[in-house]
Amino acid sequence: MNRLNSQYHRPALLLFLVIVVAHWAEHLVQAFQIWGLGWTPAESRGVLGMPFPWLVTEEWMHYAYALIMLAGFIALRPGFTGTAKTWWTVALGIQVWHHFEHLLLLIQVQSGTTFFGQAGPVSIAQLIVPRVELHLFYNGIVFLPMVVAMFLHRRPGPDEADEMNCTCAPRELTGAGVS
User: Fold this and answer.
1) What pTM does this model have?
2) CB of 79 within 8 A of CB of 165?
3) How buried is residue 3: exposed, middle or buried, by Cβ count under 10 Å (0-12/13-18/19+)?
4) For residues 83 and 87, what is the distance between their CA atoms, to the nearest angstrom?
5) Cβ(59)–Cβ(109) under 8 Å?
6) Cα dihedral across residues 82, 144, 7, 71: positive or negative
């Protein structure tokens, strides 16, 4: 974990960002398929869901992604300092709730029992907001503080730069290598 949050922090953050952006893009494509092309939600499976429909229909896949996101936020958090760490923690907190919602869905699918008197599996927020719109919202409100955290992490203030153990910020900002 020490190396992940020091010498490997930057590549790990970039990999995490690629995973998050790819997932976010899937939701945006799905939204375009529904509202731009007029497809039904069942027909709108994003990019990967078109050739591999099981990626969209299997709840364990959605849960696995939520778990990977949660693990990434937890594992990469020690590498952050100051205000960037605060923003990263906000994203982590939102992802904890998003993960919980997916856990509720997975439990319902795996047990064959639905909650809240609904005909099919449903999360708490889905009682108010339809699933497609809800997941666009969740991905957006997790992504925004995550990007703010990454931006601030690359441009730390002097005190924050002194606390950093990674090479994420340009050397001229951290003072590393300066005599």
Assistant:
1) 0.88
2) yes
3) exposed
4) 6
5) yes
6) positive
Query: Token digits for 62?
Result: 């959605």
Q: Where are the alpha helices (DSSP H) in the chain?
A: 9-31, 54-57, 59-76, 82-111, 131-154, 158-163, 171-174
Angle, helix 82-111 to helix 59-76, in steps of 10 degrees? 160
**Residues 15 and 174 sit within 8 Å (Cβ to Cβ):** no
- Please give the structure tokens belonging to residue 19: 């995973």
Q: Three-state DSSP class for 36? A: helix
Based on the number of CB atoms within 10 Å of its own CB, is 37 exposed (0-12), middle (13-18) or buried (19 or more)?
exposed
Taking only the tens of pLDDT, the chain with its 179 residues reads 889 999 999 999 999 999 999 888 888 999 999 999 999 988 988 888 888 887 777 889 889 999 999 999 999 999 999 999 999 999 999 999 999 999 999 999 999 999 999 999 999 999 999 988 998 999 999 999 999 999 999 999 888 888 999 989 886 554 444 33
Contact 152, 173 (CB under 8 A): no
Check: CB of residue 61 under 8 Å from CB of residue 116: no
Q: Give dist(CA 155, CA 171) in Å, integer.
A: 10
